[in-house]
Amino acid sequence: MSEAQSELEDFIRRIPKTETHLHVEGALPYELLNELDGERFPATPEFRTPGYRYPGFVEFENLLIDHAIVWFNSAERYHLACKRMFEKMVSLNIKYVETSFHLHMIEFIGVDGPEIISAIKSAAPEGLEVKVIGGMVRNGCTEVMRPVFEKLHEWDELDGIDLHGQEWHALEDWTPPLWKRCRDAGKIIKCHAGEFGGPDKIYEALDTLGSRRIQHGVRAVEDKVLVKRLADEGVILDVCPLSNVKLGVFPALEDHSLRELVNAGVVCTISTDDPLCFANDILDEYRALANGLGFSRKELGQFAKNGFEHSQLDSSLKREYIAQIDAAIVS
């Protein structure tokens, strides 16, 4: 490793960081599956090798579900997985995480939603603040889930909601009222948009759901008016560059739209999305931004600061972590 690379590595490790776009089920530590059944889950499956690319989103989603449901069958299993996951985050100097759990697991495994949230939060070690987001799919308002959705705004331990999954499904009538109830209740309001869907899905998230936190949003560059609006209105894009490449949203990292978005003044954070499927961690993301997209230490630091500035952390902690980042940039 050259001296410059060594200094970059030290900088990336030293700065405090956030994860604001992370799925619990998609962040299941793969080694837990390997320990559970090494024959079925070999140490290095093909989909976790560096050069692997998913044929499409459906294939990715099916693989994720097939692996996640083997482990996540109880609140206790959520706790055990998150304990391992959060311990690694602390070792990477992550201080704050917003992680979504798939609300439809309530129907799949018959476990109470607040019980799962409690299991996730109780796994957080000292020094890591965890916010739990309830994620749901666009066509997921089943007979079982409808009464759950109607009460989400009353769940005290639920910090926010997110719409994820297959982006091409139409937005159904139940969704805007749910987003309004949760927004009025002070929840974090997110929406996956502009990954496999185009700019129209981002407009939908902004104007129909009232979301100012967009998960991905990287195809906004196809509409220059939209990009300017995102910048002018301070909309936050929680971007996962390596995920976008592995899923074929961009053919290569060098083609990613992040540089164009940042140059246009759009506020972006950096996260890992689904480490189970992409075999990545937050250090990999920052390394890729520096080595593949040419972002400077100052720019990497700004991504980290964005995560804290738009977090739900206490203001004194925000200032402390941002000050640590600023000190690392100039050291």
From TrEMBL:
Which keywords are on file for this protein? Hydrolase, Metal-binding, Zinc
Pfam families from the UniProt entry: A_deaminase
Task: Recall the GO molecular function terms of this protein's record.
Answer: adenine deaminase activity; metal ion binding
Which cofactor(s) are needed, names only? Zn(2+)
GO cellular component entries: cytosol
Q: Which SUPFAM superfamilies match?
A: Metallo-dependent hydrolases
Q: Enumerate the Gene3D superfamilies for this protein.
A: Metal-dependent hydrolases (3.20.20.140)
The cross-references to InterPro entries, in alphabetical order and at most eight, read:
A_deaminase_dom, Ado/ade_deaminase, Metal_Hydrolase
GO terms in the biological process aspect are:
adenine catabolic process; hypoxanthine salvage
Domain of life of the organism in this record? Answer: Bacteria
Residue intervals of the Adenosine deaminase domain:
16-327
Record-stated family: Belongs to the metallo-dependent hydrolases superfamily. Adenosine and AMP deaminases family.
Please report the name of this protein according to its UniProt entry. Adenosine deaminase
Q: What is the lineage of its organism?
A: Bacteria, Pseudomonadati, Verrucomicrobiota, Opitutia, Puniceicoccales
